[in-house]
Design goal:
Elements lengths: L2 H17 L6 H20 L3 H5 L4 H13 L3 H14 L4 H13 L3 H14 L18 H13 L3 E2 L2 E6 L6 E7 L4 E6 L4 E5 L5 E6 L8 E8 L4 E7 L15 E7 L5 E6 L9 E6 L5 E5 L4 E6 L2 E7 L8 E4 L5 E6 L3 E6 L4 E3 L13 E7 L2 E6 L6 E7 L6 E9 L10 E4 L2 E5 L22 E7 L20 H15 L1
Helix pairs in contact: 1-2, 4-5, 5-6, 6-7, 7-8, 7-9, 8-9
């Protein structure tokens, strides 16, 4: 039986039990529930390593790992966790947990190899005093790993805090740059309002929701400088202060004149289409406008006066950012867990940019921007948090190198989206989503702080490819890699 099947069977049995709850005494219900749990455990304990390796169902594998951990079945826990890391290769926390599991059973070779790959990929953790690694202490390889993982976690870059926006119940999620008038545009998910921000962070109202434009909460802004247009991705979710039963789930793109703020047109979804939330925008020099619905894993384009779907991929976990090449031929999208993907707009074909995954982690992306032939990514889910410039091949289908611009900066708390202004990337560094619950209630008002914007120099080390320049994975097996690092560690001592 497939892993997905037995988990579904357990869930079905539980639902049937709940459905008949009124007809059975409490003791009978408890006994039936216990039987379901025992059967589930038996099925899990019967799975072989090969069966676990065949699964592509991350949620099911996660449930398995939790079950094995609770049963202290470390071997199967390792099998499940190892498969999850294969399917979610950009997560440092998962790999670290796998290394801990290897350490628990004193499998030094596997633990060292896992940590070695993490160090090469740029992950930075302080593991020296973590008691969960005690079984693998006391070797030169261990000392080497501890030292180099700490090096990766050190502050890097010449970027600096740029300005702050006054604290308040705004949840600023959108930032754009009006190059002609040299001013920033700011939008927040709590209010249907766009404001100007000057270089000091002083805000001035620009566009507000009214009966004419019907704006809801603002999730993204896009500027079409060539045609003098401002596009606003807006949605009515629980986080929006004006959320109600009539507007629930509605979303769209709103078009305004960039200079005056005059409302032009809105492009919204029909209610029968279901709930949407457009959280990323990409606007081309030729006026093309694209928007992503993160949760539904869809991308739309303004076409013929309406929003038309151009791609949808249920295999993605989300779509966290968009970027459009200057020639308008390639749209790039970021999946928070899986990395960067491309879409050839001229051919209507998706592709995955080739890169050396052994050297370069492309997960945890919350912002992505096209800049002078490169892609710049903001990785909030990387450890340490960082900004990277990706060097692309001439056809835009390969990532030939990656240059860190800023990493582990003291200001990097919870990174968010931003905007390119001249030769700098401006982005939020302390998003406050965690202060709100699923119903949009501000649960921790005392923790509100000014929204901080950071500036990274996009031309830092310009012309240098940085890390990850080889496209092919490292041509060594695990044993060779471990032996090479053992030699390196010995040389250092």
């Amino acid at each position: 039986m497939k892993i997905q099947s037995w988990i579904f069977a357990g869930a079905l049995a539980s639902s049937c039990l709940a459905a008949g709850a009124q007809e059975k005494p409490a003791a009978d219900k408890a006994a039936a529930a216990q039987t379901v749990r025992e059967n589930t455990v038996k099925r899990a304990q019967a799975l072989s390593e090969e069966q676990i390796k065949e699964s592509h169902d991350v949620p099911a594998l996660s449930k398995l790992a939790q079950l094995y951990a609770a049963q202290n079945d470390t071997q199967r826990f390792i099998w499940a966790l190892r498969r999850i890391t294969e399917l979610m290769p950009n997560s440092g926390d998962l790999r670290l947990q796998l290394a801990m599991a290897y350490a628990k059973v004193d499998d030094k070779s596997s633990a060292y190899d896992t940590l070695m790959h993490m160090q090469i990929q740029g992950f930075g953790y302080d593991i020296g005093k973590d008691p969960r690694f005690e079984p693998i202490h006391g070797t030169k390889v261990w000392d080497y790993l501890v030292a180099n993982l700490q090096v990766n976690a050190k502050q890097f870059g010449e970027g600096k805090p740029a300005f702050e926006l006054a604290k308040g119940d705004h949840l600023y999620d959108a930032l754009a740059w009006d190059a002609k008038r040299k001013r920033f545009l700011v939008g927040g998910a709590r209010e249907g309002k766009v404001q100007f921000a000057d270089a000091s962070g002083k805000l001035t109202d620009f566009i507000s929701t009214d009966a004419h434009n019907g704006l809801w909460g603002i999730d993204a802004l896009g500027v079409d400088a060539a045609h003098g247009k401002l596009y606003v991705a807006s949605s009515a979710t629980a986080i929006y202060k004006g959320f109600n039963a009539d507007n629930a789930g509605q979303a769209g793109i709103f078009e305004f004149e960039l200079g005056s703020g005059k409302f032009v047109k809105k492009y919204t979804f029909a209610k029968p289409d279901g709930a949407h939330r457009l959280t990323a925008l990409a606007v081309g020099k030729d006026g093309q406008v694209f928007a992503a619905d993160s949760a539904r894993k869809q991308v739309f384009k303004i076409d013929g006066g309406s929003l038309k779907e151009i791609l949808s991929n249920p295999k993605l976990t989300s779509i966290s950012a968009l970027a459009l090449s200057d020639d308008g031929r390639t749209l790039y999208l970021a999946d928070f867990a899986l990395g960067v993907f491309g879409y050839d707009l001229t051919k209507g074909q998706a592709f995955e940019p080739r890169h050396n995954a052994a050297n370069l982690v492309l997960g945890g992306i919350v912002g992505m921007h096209w800049y002078d032939g490169t892609l710049v990514i903001v990785e909030n889910g990387m450890v340490p948090k960082r900004v990277m410039r990706l060097q692309l091949s001439a056809d835009g289908r390969n990532i030939e190198g990656a240059m860190p611009l800023d990493a582990a900066q003291p200001a990097f708390e919870a990174l968010g989206p931003g905007t390119v202004a001249d030769d700098k990337l401006y982005f939020f560094t302390n998003r406050e989503d965690a202060l709100y619950d699923s119903h949009g209630v501000l649960t921790q008002p005392d923790k509100l702080e000014p929204s901080r914007v950071f500036a990274s120099n996009l031309r830092f080390a310009w012309g240098e490819k940085g890390v990850g320049s080889a496209l092919a994975p490292l041509a060594v097996d695990d044993g060779s890699l471990l032996k090479a690092q053992e030699n390196a560690a010995a040389d250092k001592h």
